Amino acid sequence: MAIDTRLASEKQEHRKPDLALRPVPVAVAAGALLPNLLVGAMLFIAPIAIIMLYAVGTLDFTTLEVQWGWTLASIREVLQEPYLSTLLYSVGFSLAAVVACAIPGFAIAQVMVNAPGRWRNLLIVLVIFPFWTSFIVRTYAWTDILGPRGVIADVTGRLGHEVVLLGTLPGILVGMISAYLPMMVFPIFVALERVPKVLTEAARDLGAGEWRILRTVLIPGAAPGIAAGALLVGIPACGEYVVPEVLGRGKIQLLGNVIGRQMQEDGNYPLGAALTVSLLGAMLLMLAAVWVFRRLIERNVA
Amino acid sequence: MTKWIVRGIFLLGMTILLSPLVTVSVNAFNADPLLSGWGGFTTHWISSVVVDPTVREAALGSLIIAAATTAAAAVIGTLVVGFSSYAPASLGRITDGLTVTRIMLPEVVLAAGLIVFVTRLGIHFGTFAVIVGHTVWASAYFIAVASARRAGFDKTLEDAARDLGAPPFRVFRTIIVPDLVPGLVAGALIAFTFSFDDVVTSVFLSGPETRTLPLEILSRIRHGINPSINAIGLLVMVVMTLSFAAMAALGGLRSTYSSGRKSKESTS
Known about the structure:
Oligomer: heterodimer
Distance between the termini of chain A: 60 Å
Number of helices of chain B: 13
Strand order of the largest sheet of chain A: 1-2
Shape of chain B: globular
Order of helices and strands of chain B: HHHHHHHHHHHHH
Helix content of chain A: over 70%
Number of strands of chain A: 2
Number of helices of chain A: 14
Order of helices and strands of chain A: HHHEEHHHHHHHHHHH
Structural class of chain B: mainly alpha
Strand content of chain B: under 5%
Largest interface: A-B, 89 and 91 residues
Radius of gyration of chain A: 26 Å
Helix content of chain B: over 70%
Shape of chain A: globular
Largest sheet of chain A: 2 strands, antiparallel
């Protein structure tokens, strides 16, 4: 009889293993998640919500107080010069950064995948290593390289026409590649690793040239990685502050820098807020573009 | 032909990736004050930076902010990583969503939001405001890194211990903690290094008095080329590299970066 009841209770335990084996009461576990949820709600969601409210509020220029309200004045100001071109420049710049990272990112990932074990590990370490150092220091280094006394100016000067990339958009783009390239390499590397080696061998056996293999096997295989990398590079690039601040030399200001200026020096919070909201809008457009790209890949595969 | 083009782009990419590190390391010892060429070896910049009171003050500021941020992120994050598997699924999903968005959102957006928020609450800009700002994203990085490590954990061990009659505390002490700790240390190291290296949140929330090493570097950059920046930069790089190397040694990075390799190993 006693054995029977034990068996019965064991059966019950097996039916609801999660509840029976739960070492921590649900309430305690939920309580443990609370500090993080509070930080998320009060210090993350609330500030972004306030930014959105400020974007439709107005600044009283006599008291410098922000009035709550509903006006599109700040948003309209963002959609006019000089801010409109800043916004368009920043979005275009972020797309350029994605493309500029995707091409070397693919090449590095491709070499990595084909490298024998030890070389592959060395390459992985070399690509991660810049992450182990300081972002601002890495960016600063380009002021030496791209500046009027740097290597690029020196070499191009000897060739006849000195090129100083410091303080230009291409110079900032080089800094962006340097800063964000690892974010592109690793997703593509993971995607390429999943492409079966037999596919490229079969294509080669059937007489396809290197270019054809690249176009029909490797690039489609890398596409999911490129999509993931596009997000990891494109989203931070939209609001990048440090790289244009350091390499723009005050001549070039992207959205992140303009937001910084409005928020800190000018103190025009509604305009700064409207600029921030436009940055969020640009980001959402980007997410949508990547989503469409992904759907296209899936359709091609199917 | 195509193969050689790919290799050429590969070399160009690696050069762009690694040349800043080489430049900083070399120029930190370059005696030419204009950095227009190699002017001979000197440790002058390093030694002058080490005794420079503004650099010392900035280093102290960085350390205080990074330590306080790490402590806050560790408390918040440890509770999440340790308990999320026992909490209701809906709360878990909200937690995951908040973690991902905090990492993905451009830092400028959060910093702009916090600048308005902090003003509204009447908190002064300064060290405390910077710590609060850093904690928002540092806790998310902590959770992401520490739970990536936990995800590789074999849950049957926990169940087996319980089936063999181990009381909850014993399961916690002998199974859960040893599994959790390396991830927590890795999470703390990433929170520390990201806070130590941060520019954007610090620029927005620091006010006139608070200094950190990245802010000191930024203000020197704005004043023009200055060899001392390379020296400070080298010191920052050494601190960060050491803490990342410690993290790699603990195995926290392996689970985050080479999950592809790991799955391959387990099949072979």
